[in-house]
Structure formats: structure tokens, C-alpha cells
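Hey, quick one: can you model this chain's 3D structure?
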Amino acid sequence: MKALRVVTAVLLTGGLLGGCTPFRSAAPADFAAYEAGESLQAVGAERVVYQVKRLENKPFAALAFWQVALKERLLKAGYVLSAEGAIQAGGETGYYIETTAPRGTADYMYLVALFVQGKNLIVVESGGELAAYKPQRDKIFAAIRAADLAGGR
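Sure thing. Here's the predicted structure for all 153 residues.
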């Protein structure tokens, strides 16, 4: 169980790897993109954020492990499950989970999608106030599906 806490902490805090070949991903339509090291970050006009980054697959595990670890971590932290399932990008199958949580007087949506590529994880995160996120959801999923993950190997 201690290992599960460590891996979810690494996944959710963004332990980026340096010196890897970059994956190719574009921001959702109408989002302003900027690069931050090895990650792609973008923000929409309504402050919905989007990020794609590479993490080390450590401990080395298959998608099924990361799926359970991520879902368990988010639900135990108080997020409420909205949707989850398989998602395709670059010819690979990954997993996504959408959760909501209250913050102040508003509800916020948080999306995490992940893809396992041997020693790497490609992690996509997006979030924002629920009312702002919902109209952007199709653009966010389109950006994920259009990603070329070949550089993440």
C-alpha cells in the first residue's frame, strides 16, 4: 500500500523526466499554448487549463495498475467520479477519468488521461470551473485523440 501512495504522488505531482524525445501534441482548438520544458501547457479564454507531460513509469506497471491507482487516489481525495473509460491517441489505448469537486462556491472538473509506453507515462490533465469546462470538453478530447505519442517511447 505504501508503494501505491508513492506512485500516485509521483503521478499527480508531475515528476518529469529530462532529456527524452518530445511527444507531439497540440493544444485544444482556441487554447493558447506554451511549452514548459518537456510539457505542453495551454489555457482557454475561460481559464480552462490543459497540460500534456511525460512521467517515468515507476514502478514499472501496465495501464491496468495506473488506472486503479489513479482512480483510487482521486476518489479517496474527495473527487466525485463523472466519467471514465478507454481513449485512443496515436494508435494507442489509454485511460481517462473525469471528476468533479467543489471549490468555494463553484464546482470544478478535473480530467486525467494516461497512456503507458514502456518506461514512460504520457499524462494529459485538464480542468476548470465546471460551467467553463463543459463547452470545451469536445475540443479537449479531440486534442487528446489527435496527439502523436510516438515520441514518448
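One thing worth noting: The longest strand covers residues 92-103.
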